Amino acid sequence: MSVKTKGQKPVFIDAFAGCGGLSLGLLRSGWQGMFAIEKDAFAFSTLKANLVDPGARVRYDWPAWLEQQPWTIESLVEAHGEKLAALRGKVDLLAGGRPARDFQVPVAGARATRGTSSLSATSSSLRLCFPGWCLSRTCGA
Q: Which of 54, 56, 64, 123 is the most buried (most CB within 10 A)?
C-alpha cells in the first residue's frame, strides 16, 4: 500500500462501479478516484456523465492511457496489463459493489462458483497492480 504524506488523498479504483454510487461516496469523503471498471454501457454512461465529464462536482483523475468506455475485468487486463502493473503501490483501495450472487459471472482463470465473491475473483485477476485492501458490498439480494 502506498504511504501518504500529510495532505495527500488516498487513491481508489472502483470495480463493478455501476452508475458510480460507491465512488461518489468515496470522492465526497476525500478519496481520490483513479478510474472505474463497469461493463454495462448504460451504467457506464451515467457514471461518465456524473463523475468523469467536465463540469462534474467531484471527478475521477482518469488516466490518459485508459479509454473512457465500458470494460470487463478481463478485457481491461488484456488491453492494459502493463499499465495496470505500473500502478502497484499507487492505489490504496480496490472498491467494488459486486453483483448479487445470482448474477455473478466467473472471471476467466479464476475458480468461481455460485455464491463465490466476484470481487475475490476480480482481485485475483488484478493482483498484479492493486494492494491488499478491498471494500466490497453486494448489490441486490
A: 123
Torsion angles phi and psi, residue 37, rounded to 5: -120, 120
20 Cα distance to chain centroid: 10
Residue 105 CA to residue 4 CA, distance in Å, equals 35
> What is the residue type of 51?
L
Which residue's entry shows cell 471527478? 59
In whole angstroms, what is the distance from residue 10 CA to residue 41 CA?
28
Asked if 30 contacts 112 with a C-beta cutoff of 8 angstroms, the reply is no
What are 32-72's pLDDT values in tens digits?
A: 999 999 999 999 999 999 999 999 999 999 999 999 999 99
CB 52 within 8 A of CB 67: no
Angle (deg, nearest 10), helices 21-28 and 41-51: 20
End-to-end CA distance of the chain: 32
What pLDDT score does 74 carry?
Answer: 86
| Number of residues written out for the chain | 141
